[in-house]
Amino acid sequence: MNRPRMTSSATALLRLLLQRAGDDRHRIFLIGWTSVDWQSLTFNGERHTASFVLTGRDADALAERWTDGLGDAEFDLPAGFVAEIGLVAQPSRREDGSVVVELEALTLAD
């Protein structure tokens, strides 16, 4: 099956994640995104894995602010909701000072 590069729920989640960074969203760059269909007996949705690079002199602090409380955050998707979201691993610092953040999320359709 041919799928768009990013599904509508993936696009909405990405937009909401960047909004969460406020004025610093221009320092966050998407470097990878994968979405796969997910089902249980009662729900349909998608499992998402995303990788970002955060730049700037205080990229570590930005990563901490951006991901703090992420698991408890509520995201208002147009046609569904985020059932779970969190870090894959602790953010890692690159030699150039940028920081890589990897997230996983499960979105469910209404």
Number of strands: 6
Q: How many H/I helical runs? A: 2
- Write down the overall geometry: elongated
**Biggest sheet descriptor:** 6 strands, antiparallel
Structural class: alpha+beta
Quote the distance from N terminus to C terminus. 23 Å
Give the H and E element order.
Answer: HEEHEEEE
Estimate the mean pLDDT confidence: 94
Strand share of the residues?
35-45%
Radius of gyration: 14 Å
> Uncertain runs with pLDDT below 50, 5 residues or more?
none
Helix content: 10-25%
Give a brief description.
With 110 residues, the protein is α+β, with helices and mostly antiparallel strands. Helices cover 20% and strands 42% of the residues.
Structural notes for this entry:
The chain has 110 residues and is of the alpha+beta class. Helix content is 20%, strand content 42%. It has helices at residues 8-20, 59-67; strands at 28-39, 44-54, 76-77, 80-87, 92-93, 99-109.
Which short descriptors sum up this protein?
single chain, 110 residues, alpha+beta, 6-stranded antiparallel β-sheet, 2 helices, 6 strands, 20% helix, 42% strand, elongated
Write the layout of secondary structure elements.
Elements: H1 8-20, E1 28-39, E2 44-54, H2 59-67, E3 76-77, E4 80-87, E5 92-93, E6 99-109
